[in-house]
Amino acid sequence: MNIDRGFLNVMILSWGFMLVFAAFQTMGNIEKTVLSSIKTDDENFTGEAYTSLAIIYAVFSICNWLAPSYISVTGPRVAILTGACCYVLFIASFFWPNAGLLYSMSGVVGIGAAFIWTGHGQYLTENSDVDTMSRNAGLFWAIFQSSQFAGNLLVFFVFDTDKIDATQRRTVFSVLTGLSLIGALVLVFLRRPPQKSSLGEAEGVSSADKELQLPEPVREKPLVAAWQALVDALKLFLTPRMLILSLTFIYTGLELTFYSGVYSNSIGFTKAMGDQRKRLLGLSGIFIGVGEVVGGAVFGILASKVCRNCGGSPVVLTGLVVHLFAFISIFLNLPNNASLGETSDTDHVMSSPILAMAGSLALGFGDACYNTQIYSLLGVLFAKESAPAFALFKFCQSVAAAVSFSYSTSAGLHIQLLVLLVTIILGTIAFCYVERTVKKSKNESQPEIDPSLVEPTSGED
After folding, report:
1. In-domain check, residue 216
2. 297 secondary structure, DSSP code
3. Measured between alpha carbons, how far is 106 from 283 in angstroms, rounded to an integer?
4. Is residue 53 assigned to a domain?
5. To the nearest 10°, the Cα dihedral for 99, 101, 103, 106?
6. pLDDT for residue 341
7. Domain of 264, in residue numbers
8. Any idea what the CATH number is for the domain that residue 69 is in?
9. DSSP state, 220?
C-alpha cells in the first residue's frame, strides 16, 4: 500500500501542532482571568497577562527576521521541534507564579514561535505542489484549530465557580503542560519531504511539470547560508506584492489578539453574563474552534472543488462579512470596559451568552477564511522563497499583535473594534488586489497556448 509521503508529513505536522497549541491557545484564552485570580491569592504577584502576551509577539516579530537564517542551517524539522519545546517550557512556568519568570518565558516562547511557524510554512510548502497546496493548507488549519476543543472543554468543566482557586489552576496547568509535551513528541516523527519541485503555475511552470525533478542546490557554509537567508528576506519584504500584502497580515495579527486574548476574557469579566460566566471562557474558545475548523474545511480542504476557478478573493470577502457581523454583535453585547476587568455595566442590549457565542463562532470562521487563503497564496506565489515569505507574514502579524496587546491594557473594547474595522477593510482590499494582479500576469505570460498542443505524456518540451 503506497502512502503519499507528503500527505503523511502534513498529517503529522497538523496533529503535532494541534496538541501543542491546544495547550498554548487555551492558556492565552484564559491568561488574563487566571493571573487575576493569582493576584487575589497573592498580593505580591504583579504579573500582567496583556504584558506577557505583548512580550511574546514583540520577540516573535524580531525573531522572524532571524528564523530563515536558523532554518537555512538546521532545516525546517529541527526548527519546528525547537519551537515546540519552547511552548512546553512556557506553559510549565505557570506552576511557579512569578512576574520575572512569566516575562522571561514569554520571551522564550516568542523565539520558539518564530522557529515553529516559519519552519511550518517551509515544511508545508515542501510537502505540497500547486494542486495540493490549498488542500494541505486547509487540512492543516482545520486539524490545527481543533486544538481549541480539548483545552477549552477542560476549562469549561474545571472553572465551575465564580472564583478560581489554586487547585483548579493546578489541574488546568497540569493537563495543558502534558498536552504540549505530547505534541512535541509527535513532531519528532516528521520526515524529509518527497523530492519534487515546489514550483507552481504562478511562476510560469505548467501543471504537467509541477513534479519535475530538480538537482539539489549547492550547500553553502552555515554562516554564509544564514546571512544570505536574511538578505533574501529583506529583499522580499521590499517587493511591491509583499508590501501590499502586509496590510492583510497586519489585520490577521490584530484580530488574532482580539479573539485569542481579549474577547473571551471580556465575556468572563461581564457580570451580566451570570454566575457561570467563568465557564463561558472555555465555551467561547470552543465556539471559536468550531468556526476555525468549519472554515478550514469548507474554504481550505474543499476549496479546489468548490471555487477552483475563482481563487481566494471570494473566500476572503466571505470572511469580511462574517467578521463585520462579529464586530457589530460584540459592540451591542459587551460593555466598553469589559476587556479591562470585572464590570457590572451593560451595553446597548442586555448581555446575552448566546449572542456572545455567536460572536465567537463568527470570529473563528472569519479567521479561517483569511488564514487559509494567505497560506495558499504564499505557498504558490513564493514557492521558491517559502521560508522568508512565511517569516515575513508572521513578522507583520506578530508586530500587529504586540502593538494590540500593548494598547489592550488601557483601551476599551469599542476602540479595539474600531481599529479592527478600519484594518479589515484595508487588508481585504490588499489581498484581492494582489491576487488579481497575480492572475493577470499569469494569463498574460501564456496568452497564445493552443490546448490541442498540450500532451499529457512526459512533461518534457
Report:
1. no
2. I
3. 25
4. yes
5. -140
6. 73
7. 236-443
8. 1.20.1250.20
9. P
* Nearest alpha-carbon partner for 8 in 97, 136, 96: 136
Burial of 446: CB neighbours in 10 Å, binned 0-12, 13-18, 19+: exposed
CB 442 within 8 A of CB 202: yes
**C-alpha–C-alpha distance, residues 157 and 23, integer Å:** 16
If DSSP codes are grouped into helix, strand and coil, which group holds residue 270? strand
Residue-level pLDDT at 80: 94
The 10 Å Cβ neighbour count of residue 188 is 12
Is the CB of residue 250 less than 8 Å from the CB of residue 264?
no
Q: Which three cell numbers stand for residue 347?
A: 451595553
Q: What pLDDT does residue 416 have? A: 92
The CA-CA-CA angle for residues 405, 407, 413, to 5°, reads: 90
Query: Which residue ranges in the chain fall short of pLDDT 70?
Result: 1-3, 160-162, 195-230, 300-311, 346-349, 387, 442-461
- Give dist(CA 53, CA 402) in Å, integer: 7
- Bridge partners for 343 per DSSP: 270
Contact 55, 110 (CB under 8 A): yes
pTM (2 decimals)? 0.71
Q: What is the pLDDT of residue 267?
A: 85
Q: What three-state secondary structure class fits 188?
A: coil
Please provide the size of the chain in residues: 461
Whether residue 387 contacts residue 65, with contact meaning beta carbons closer than 8 Å, is answered with no
Which residue, among 419, 410, 397, has the nearest Cα to 56 in the 3D structure? 397
Tell me the C-alpha distance between 313 and 440, whole Å: 14
Q: Is residue 295 part of a domain?
A: yes
Measured CA to CA, the distance from residue 121 to residue 144 in angstroms comes to: 14
CA dist., res. 265 & res. 115, Å (int): 28
Tell me: do 155 and 252 sit in the same domain. Answer: no
* All three cell numbers of 157: 468543566
Nearest C-alpha neighbor of 90 from the set 13, 159, 181: 181
